[in-house]
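To illustrate the input format used throughout this study, we show a single complete record. The first block contains the structure-token representation of the backbone; no residue identities are included at this stage. The design step must infer an amino acid for every position from geometry alone.
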């Protein structure tokens, strides 16, 4: 159970991040500082902004949960994120900064006309908002796991912390807070991973542990494991859930990183092209190892606990819970339960606080992305009332608060089991709306007429939605991207436009 030292560690982290958020707010004097950091962010702030949003509940708690069931295939979230950051640095960062725009939708609209603006803005912001809901559900689940309290109270705490984290500092708050969170998260995850390796004796020890618990046992049979030969394909393979599913998950993250305003804001926030590229490269380098540490924790807990559902199945089969194994409510509790039972209480509290801030940072950064799109690409195009920098800053902060409160309300109405569905739908919408039109706008400027661009922006997400409704056997994102590619290829062939020498240089 949670003790005084755990609580002390959690409070320490929350106060530290709150102070960082308040400090970063001193750097904000207008809307430009808020949404793009005034173009003054250094390499580490760029990296912190990206990782502060991208390394969220799914990258930590979710990775440990998936590793508990499928081992190394859980790496695809952080591995795909790292690859996405690498491609962002190499192929997109400089072109985005030289586009003359500060949003991904703005880049698309520049090439394909104002008709694309509202459609792309609405679909893109909805896609990101869905992820905010997922982060809010994760936050409330973590809080109620650690400290029993009513869900509404947990949701309120989540909203307040997310607000402090980003609303005062915008990109500066997400960036500087992201750097601090990254340091805490690395210390936490590495400590957990080192503990697992030390206790188990490494990869061979983990394999022996899993074999002893699962091979030839009723618990193993419940999970589809019947002999020692089933252990490696299940827990040591990157495609344990099937190549299409796992490779598709990785590709979804790659496209999602490139297609999300929250990460693009970090690119525009950089003080130079070099800072933007280096910040993205640092993110690409640092994100995947976090996943490895969380996988080790998930595998360790597979050998030391079972879920209440598994326990019930054992009892129904006339078996008892294996001696020495604890029963947890669900696999979503794997990471926090590991911290509570196997780490020093004070350090464990710091880790739990870091996990919470990790989830909070993800939701806060994503809400900033929604705000940027709504303010810059929708409201600013509809009225001149908020062109004044002070008014625009006030509006941006107000929208963030609205997004967080609305996501909390929805989180209270929906079960936590919906988190993964939210994640897939969110990534699908973002990728289908942005990826292909953005790429053609940056690399084939002036070559495809506006009508084709508008058709792609609408047909892509519509295909993803249709794929979800029809329950396609693979990620509907691929349907949307395929539709985008077909449409834009036809547009390239039939538009008959030529690129000027000036445009080729951009």
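Output of the design step:
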């Amino acid at each position: 159970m949670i003790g005084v030292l755990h609580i002390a560690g959690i409070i320490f982290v929350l106060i530290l991040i709150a102070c960082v958020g308040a400090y970063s707010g001193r750097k904000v004097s207008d809307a430009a500082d808020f949404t793009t950091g005034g173009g003054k962010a250094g390499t580490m702030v760029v990296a912190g902004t990206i990782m502060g949003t991208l390394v969220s509940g799914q990258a930590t708690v979710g990775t440990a949960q998936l590793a508990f069931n499928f081992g190394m295939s859980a790496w695809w979230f952080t591995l795909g994120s790292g690859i996405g950051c690498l491609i962002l640095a190499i192929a997109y960062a400089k072109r985005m900064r030289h586009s003359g725009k500060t949003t991904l939708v703005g880049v698309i609209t520049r090439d394909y006309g104002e008709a694309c603006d509202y459609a792309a803005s609405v679909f893109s912001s909805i896609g990101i908002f869905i992820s905010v809901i997922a982060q809010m559900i994760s936050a409330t689940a973590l809080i109620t796991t650690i400290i029993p309290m009513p869900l509404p109270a947990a949701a309120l705490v989540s909203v307040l912390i997310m607000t402090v984290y980003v609303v005062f500092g915008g990109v500066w708050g997400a960036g500087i807070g992201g750097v601090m969170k990254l340091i805490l998260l690395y210390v936490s995850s590495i400590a957990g991973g080192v503990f697992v390796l030390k206790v188990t004796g490494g990869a061979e020890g983990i394999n022996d542990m899993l074999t002893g618990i699962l091979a030839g046992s009723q618990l193993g049979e419940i999970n589809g494991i019947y002999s020692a030969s089933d252990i490696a394909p299940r827990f040591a393979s990157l495609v344990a859930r099937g190549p299409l599913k796992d490779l598709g998950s990785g590709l979804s993250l790659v496209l999602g990183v490139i297609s999300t305003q929250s990460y693009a804001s970090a690119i525009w926030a950089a003080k130079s092209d070099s800072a933007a590229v280096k910040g993205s490269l640092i993110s690409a380098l640092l994100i995947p190892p976090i996943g490895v540490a969380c996988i080790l924790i998930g595998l360790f807990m597979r050998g030391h606990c079972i879920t209440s559902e598994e326990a019930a199945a054992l009892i129904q089969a006339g078996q008892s819970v294996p001696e020495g194994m604890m029963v947890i409510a669900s696999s979503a509790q794997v990471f926090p339960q590991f911290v509570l039972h196997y780490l020093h209480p004070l350090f464990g509290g710091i880790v739990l606080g870091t996990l919470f801030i990790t989830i909070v940072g993800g939701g806060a950064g994503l809400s900033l992305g929604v705000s940027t799109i709504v303010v810059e690409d929708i409201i600013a195009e509809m009225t001149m009332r908020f062109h004044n920098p002070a008014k625009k800053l006030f509006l941006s902060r107000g929208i963030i608060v609205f997004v967080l409160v609305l996501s909390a309300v929805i989180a209270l109405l929906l079960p936590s089991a919906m988190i993964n569905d939210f994640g897939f739908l969110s990534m699908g919408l973002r990728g289908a709306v942005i990826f292909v039109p953005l790429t053609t706008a940056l690399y084939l400027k002036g070559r495809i007429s506006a009508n084709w661009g508008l058709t792609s922006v609408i047909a892509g997400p519509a295909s993803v939605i249709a794929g979800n409704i029809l329950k396609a056997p693979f990620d509907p994102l691929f349907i949307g991207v395929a539709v985008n590619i077909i449409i834009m290829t036809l547009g390239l062939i039939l538009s008959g436009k030529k690129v000027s020498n000036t445009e080729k240089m951009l």
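Structural context for interpreting the output: DSSP finds 23 helices and two strands in the chain. The CA atoms of residues 420 and 482 lie 23 Å apart.
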